[in-house]
Amino acid sequence: MAKPIPKMGSRKNGRIGSRKHAHKIPKGVIHVQASFNNTIVTVTDVRGRVISWSSAGTCGFKGTRRGTPFAAQTAAGNAIRTVADQGMQRAEVMIKGPGLGRDAALRAIRRSGILLNFIRDVTPMPHNGCRSPKKRRWKCVESRVDSKRLYYGRFILSPLMKGQADTIGIAVRRVLLGEIEGTCITRAKSEKIPHEYSTIVGIQESVHEILMNLKEIVLRSNLYGTQDASICFKGPGYITAQDIILPPSVEIIDNTQHIANLTEPINLCIGLKIERNRGYRIKTLKNFQDGSFPIDAVFMPVRNVNHSIHSYGNGKKKQEILFLEIWTNGKEDPFHLEKNQHKVTLPLFTFHDILAKDKLRKNKKGIALKSIFIDQLELPPKIYNCLKRSNIHTLLELLNNSQEDLMEMEHFRVEDVKHILDILEIEKHFA
Fold first, then answer.
1. Three-state DSSP class for 99?
2. CA nearest to 57, candidates 25, 101, 90, 94
3. Whole-Å CA distances, 349 to 171, 293, 306, 368, 426
4. Phi and psi (nearest 5°) for 157?
5. Which residues are in the DNA-directed RNA polymerase RpoA/D/Rpb3-type domain (predicted)?
6. At 321, which helix (H) or strand (E)?
């Protein structure tokens, strides 16, 4: 026969009952989890065992009121009141979540009289942080070399917020026209020249015309200071830029530049001064010294800069594209402008590399359209899903459809077609 199981706490076992004694907890950890819908405050000891807890929901708050700072303050006060009676004097606070009750719960904990050792934010963050915004970048859309002394390039900077394109365009134009250094001839001297407006027997050009021809010579050098050069020629014949005797550090861009035409067998020797500077320098009466003639010096390699602005987008999300046109005299191309010694950082591209890429781009235009997916066009989710349902995955497939074909798609509107046309217009500038 089975024995009955004795009852705990009965008189037969000699045990009347047990009384729990409150443990003193001098130190603990307070966890605050603040979300947008609720705030939960949990108090544990140093081993992680829960002592008390409270939340905005258990305090009687319902609906959207559970996420308010006042609800978090009430929940924290209820959770701390229990442990304060058990003698907690010091605590560590761990705050987690982006809710509105973070600060209110912390203020309630500080008013309770518990000494806080430290406060730590343990909100989890995604790996590598939040996604960075789209980077602004320069891109060349057109480039050509008209001659050895005339380079042209058209560049785009995007995306820009409304008003930024004009500010950047003006600043870049002033920097390109005023801060880029260059090298040119600043002074000429010859014993056979009495004054600037005289003529020399046996030379077709006047002295003034020779000085103007010397002004047009384009030089390239990386050294600072004044350097000497000379021309020693015996006629008859044509004097060109290749007849100039230059120091090793100076290079002539166009050796075919005309200087003078000697019609008789005479010797012509001209001493030249070469300098590197920025901007331009106009000759004055004070510059006439030692029988030498100053030349109007144009040091800047950039001849002209134009900028224009194209806006796109709808409503409040309007953005701008900055178009920048640059003409140079051959001294520098945009690649050298980026590496200028005066820290004028313009991340543009070299003309020579782009001209080579243009030939490949024309041959592979069809292949390039196939390799551009609609995921790269930054379409709204609705338009993107409609195109995906219609088996349109690349830019080439999108261009093969007319506006009528797009309107026949399900859930497609006229505004969506206009939005696609705006995006394709922008992509055409970048292609």
1. coil
2. 101
3. 19, 39, 17, 21, 20
4. -125, 125
5. 152-338
6. strand 319-328
Q: Residue 270: name the closest of 230, 242, 239, 228 by CA.
A: 230
Place of tokens 């058209």: 154
pTM summary value: 0.48
| Separation CA 416–CA 210 (nearest Å) | 64
What are the tens digits of pLDDT across the range 133-189? 666 677 777 788 888 888 888 888 888 888 888 888 888 888 888 888 888 899 888
Q: Provide long-range contacts, Cβ within 8 A and 24+ apart, for 193-198.
A: 193/293, 196/293
**Assigned token pair, 248:** 């090793």
How do residues 344-391 score in pLDDT, each as one tens digit? Answer: 434 333 333 444 444 444 444 544 555 677 766 767 778 888 888 888
Cis peptide before 236 (omega within 30 of 0): yes
Q: Among candidates 280, 295, 273, 254, which has minimal Cα distance to 180? A: 280
221 and 274 Cβ atoms separated by less than 8 Å: yes
Return d(Cα 404, Cα 402) in angstroms, integer.
5
Closest CA to 59 of 47, 67, 48, 51: 67
User: Using CA atoms, how far apart are residues 94 and 138, in angstroms rounded to an integer?
Assistant: 45
Q: Which residues contact 411 (CB under 8 A, 6 or more apart)?
A: 382, 386
Q: How far is CA 154 from CA 87, 93, 316, 359, in A?
A: 75, 58, 29, 17
Q: Which amino acid is at 272?
A: L
